[in-house]
């Protein structure tokens, strides 16, 4: 499934009032200078390479100092620098990637050092733990020495605000710590989906990082800024884009995903539960309502979502997933949050309308998707965990029925395999919602645990314990190894063992 949406002559709807407020909420970045554990001692000649380990995952600006041994350099040194998020990425060949995502994300540089000794401040920001330096060429008269390497890190997470947490067992603590490190590196000017790739604000990712952030760094202003950015630059018809670029100017991406747009009222309501911020309610209520009305316009007479809404839905990278039942469910889910927003606003008409629509669409979901024989929701005949998860989260099944459904969902996980931590989060959430705490904890230990046990410092965008090289992009070198939507054990663990 390639996610490339191009709208010709796309001119987003810009709201200067909201964007000015987003700008005022821009966070101050914090910096720390970090040095690697050790540097290579042996001078490097043509074809030599060395790997420098910084000991932990970093996002920041890198400076290097080089010297030489031997005769005066009579030719430039031509070097390669490859920054890798983890050991597995280090073993990949950047030149071998030909997938559908741009290879320009790969942190692979070539540099000429004309004069030695040389001090170099690299212009880009990198996200990495390992740096491989390769000498492509010098001259027979001299060899290169690496004298100093440092990284000035960047994050908007402030340690003073961090709520401390001690997990009940070492594996859970490792998962929690990796989640926190992931979150910290994704907290930049906005909540980036991944500091290596795509370095931008996606709504689905924001929903999950916001939850993890409330449970840890508590930077509520950063969530507010992101909400204002989404509302401040939208599709010309008012739809919230799936992603927003925040630099050089805020600008909506010309990609719209049905489930992501519907998460806007959800993120707003959750933000208001955390903060009670009446200014944000005033400013963003209209945009939230607009998303609901647009989505309700994509429902047929029989109460089922129309194919056009399903076509642009995400939920997971699983190619074969039939997304109809999930889309129906996420609309009901969003309606429940929208009703809460309407209640906060004292908007009785909308509250009654959303409550009624949630009831109607729920009933339609049961009529059209629930298979009376098996008790599973089928999406155009397809049985998947994702459909059950979203129906439970939306409250289409509740009480004992939902609990039984989640129990038996555990037996069909391989039908349409879940491919991302994003859908795994919602699976765990659904287990928690139905009181299956032991199963939720087992899921965290098995799934997220397998990440840290495989040696990862930060939690990745895509993870299949049976195939660590799995990628929706035709090559795992382009996967993001530190990904916002994977950090939710920071939130989930506190729900289970506060
Ligand atoms: C990718 C990113 C991002 C996600 C979208 C749908 O580009 O991984 O996190 O939200 O897909």
Report on this model:
This protein is of the alpha+beta class and 498 residues long. It folds into two domains: 13-27 and 157-496, Alpha/alpha barrel (Glycosyltransferase), CATH 1.50.10; 31-154, Sandwich (Jelly Rolls). Helix content is 40%, strand content 17%. The chain is built from 15 helices and 13 strands. It has helices spanning 16-24, 87-90, 170-186, 203-214, 220-232, 258-275, 278-296, 307-311, 324-345, 348-369, 385-393, 399-409, 421-433, 437-453, 489-496; strands spanning 13-14, 33-34, 49-70, 77-84, 108-113, 118-137, 142-153, 201-202, 233-234, 243-245, 251-252, 378-379, 382-383. It has a six-stranded antiparallel β-sheet with strand order 2-7-3-6-4-5. The protein has a three-stranded antiparallel β-sheet with strand order 8-10-11. A two-stranded antiparallel ribbon has the order 1-9. A hairpin with a 2-residue loop joins strand 12 and strand 13 (382-383). Helix 9 runs antiparallel to helix 10. 48% of the residues are buried. The mean pLDDT is 97. It binds alpha-L-rhamnopyranose (RAM). Alpha-L-rhamnopyranose (RAM) binds at residues 3, 193, 198, 202, 204-205, 314, 461, 485.
